[in-house]
């Protein structure tokens, strides 16, 4: 029997011929009198920079077919769609996949990494059509909990609203992840864990991957004024807590079906939580969810050339952008909310912030002469700044207030 799983490995261009061959055998009643099947040549896989589906096999990219990819995903309980958060094409691809899956399984629930559980009521009100876009973003505390430009996610949210598809908040509050980072999982009292259970231990490959990430993160913080680097065990606990929280939210909604046909659970999250099944898929399996589809968008030649077997069930190669818009102005800082200010947690070496005299630990109290209420407001003000212009700001340091000017480079 040719299953959907087999179709993903076998190009769809072969399928009609194979079915035709089977039909001929049935009509003739004997292999001896059946006409030989015509075998079409295997369709070549798209190369990096082109558009199309691939199923990585070793170091080779084998062509996959959208019909087979969707058919395969529909046999699973959970479908995870990855992303690089700031890439708009990744979100356009996610919308394409939601539409394809919803056409076959309208009984769908979409889970989002972007929202902590405490704002679930805002998601419910949005889907019910009770909120405007601005009201939704305000009640979901978008500028505090996610900080990426909302317009690149809004088509996904609008799709859920138009089709009355329940949206599920998968994440936990940043207060919990900060506590785990500072104290480790064991150091956070159970009452403060938002109901998240102890994560399954990381697999050895995931441990190696996270050690590499921790080392790179530590190297980026080697500058005066930066916070001490988080111990690896705490860093590991934070990543596992994040993975576990999202897996539990998805699994709980499946289990709530209570004997009825469960909805198709679709998770929208960063690709790092999905690759090789290390993160959320591993935690889902520990929770008893076995049928999981992992699909990734891939853009850029470097990422494309690193594709290898096991990274996902299938990947969609995004075409190169010949006329990509310039990136919004970036300071190269990590910010967090403070009391009537925004605190600079870290500064990237060589960044515009470093060249402008900003330091880790500075508290930004004014931008362009106006008080700064929070990180969302500060980020929006920086991104609105046209190339080639100057942005004055006031920062508070232990020795007193300092006036600085950010000189954004002219657009090339």
Largest sheet: 8 strands, mixed
CATH topology of the largest domain: Rossmann fold
Low-pLDDT parts are 1-40
CATH class of the largest domain: Alpha Beta
Number of helices: 15
The assigned CATH architecture of the largest domain is 3-Layer(aba) Sandwich
Write out the strand line-up for the largest beta sheet, numbering strands in chain order.
2-1-8-7-3-6-4-5
Oligomer: single chain
Our Rg estimate from Cα atoms comes to: 24 Å
| Domain module tally | 2
Cα(first) to Cα(last) distance is 58 Å
Beta-strand portion reads 15-25%
Q: What do the pLDDT scores average to?
A: 84
What would your notes on this structure say?
With 412 residues, the protein is of the alpha/beta class. The protein folds into two domains: 77-290, Rossmann fold (3-Layer(aba) Sandwich); 333-407, PDZ domain (Pdz3 Domain), CATH 2.30.42.10. 37% of the residues lie in helices and 19% in strands. The protein has helices at 4-9, 15-28, 66-74, 88-104, 120-127, 133-139, 142-145, 154-162, 174-183, 204-220, 232-255, 280-286, 301-305, 352-355, 375-384, and strands spanning 52-57, 60-63, 78-81, 108-116, 167-171, 264-268, 292-298, 314-317, 333-338, 341-347, 363-367, 370-371, 390-397, 400-407. An eight-stranded mixed β-sheet has the order 2-1-8-7-3-6-4-5, with helices on both faces. A hairpin with a 2-residue loop joins strand 11 (363-367) and strand 12 (370-371). Helix 9 runs antiparallel to helix 11 and helix 11 (232-255) crosses helix 12. The protein is globular, with a radius of gyration of 24 Å.
């Amino acid at each position: 029997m040719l299953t959907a799983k087999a179709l993903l490995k076998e190009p769809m261009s072969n399928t009609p011929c194979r079915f035709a061959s089977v039909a001929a055998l049935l009509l003739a009643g004997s292999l001896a009198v059946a006409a030989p099947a015509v075998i079409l040549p295997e369709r070549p896989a798209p190369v990096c920079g082109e558009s199309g589906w691939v199923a990585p096999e070793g170091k080779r990219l084998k062509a996959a077919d959208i019909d087979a990819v969707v058919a395969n995903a529909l046999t699973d309980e959970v479908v995870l769609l990855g992303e690089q958060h700031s890439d708009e094409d990744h979100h356009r691809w996610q919308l394409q996949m939601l539409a394809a899956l919803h056409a076959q399984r309208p009984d769908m629930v979409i889970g989002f990494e972007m929202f902590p559980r405490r704002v679930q009521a805002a998601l419910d009100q949005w889907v019910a059509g009770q909120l405007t876009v601005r009201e939704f973003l305000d009640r979901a505390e978008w500028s505090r909990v996610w900080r990426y430009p909302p317009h690149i996610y809004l088509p996904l949210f609008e799709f859920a609203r138009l089709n009355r598809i329940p949206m599920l908040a998968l994440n936990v509050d940043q207060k919990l992840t900060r506590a785990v980072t500072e104290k480790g999982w064991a150091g956070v009292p159970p009452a403060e864990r938002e109901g998240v259970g102890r994560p399954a231990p990381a697999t050895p490959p995931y441990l190696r991957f996270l050690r590499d990430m921790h080392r790179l993160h530590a190297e980026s913080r080697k500058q005066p004024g930066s916070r001490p680097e988080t111990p690896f065990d705490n860093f590991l606990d934070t990543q596992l807590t994040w993975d576990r929280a999202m897996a539990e939210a998805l699994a709980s909604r499946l289990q709530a079906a209570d004997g009825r046909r469960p909805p198709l659970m679709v998770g929208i999250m960063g690709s790092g939580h999905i690759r090789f099944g290390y993160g959320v898929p591993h935690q889902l399996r520990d929770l008893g969810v076995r049928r999981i589809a992992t699909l990734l968008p891939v853009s850029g030649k470097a990422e494309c050339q690193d594709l290898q077997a096991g990274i996902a069930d299938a990947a969609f190669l995004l075409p190169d952008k010949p006329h990509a818009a310039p990136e919004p102005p970036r300071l190269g800082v990590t910010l967090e909310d403070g009391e009537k200010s925004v605190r600079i947690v870290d500064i990237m070496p060589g960044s515009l912030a470093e060249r402008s005299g900003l330091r880790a630990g500075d508290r930004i109290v004014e931008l362009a002469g106006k008080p700064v209420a929070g990180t969302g407001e500060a980020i929006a003000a920086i991104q609105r700044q046209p190339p080639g212009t100057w942005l004055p700001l006031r920062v508070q340091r232990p020795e007193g207030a300092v006036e600085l000017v950010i000189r954004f480079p002219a657009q090339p």
